[in-house]
Amino acid sequence: MYTGKARAYLIFKGLPYTEVFSSLKVYKNIIVPNTGIRFVPV
């Protein structure tokens, strides 16, 4: 739901991207350390 517009924009502009499933491990090890926030959407 939250990524639909962002994904469509990236596709439209031809920009490369990788979708990563946000498991608890990804959330704790990547999302929180890089953003400093603990809520979704990021």
UniProtKB/TrEMBL annotation:
GO molecular function (one): transferase activity
Which UniProt keywords are given for this protein, alphabetically ordered? Transferase
Top-level division of the source organism's lineage: Bacteria
Q: What is this protein called?
A: Glutathione S-transferase
Native organism: Paraglaciecola psychrophila 170
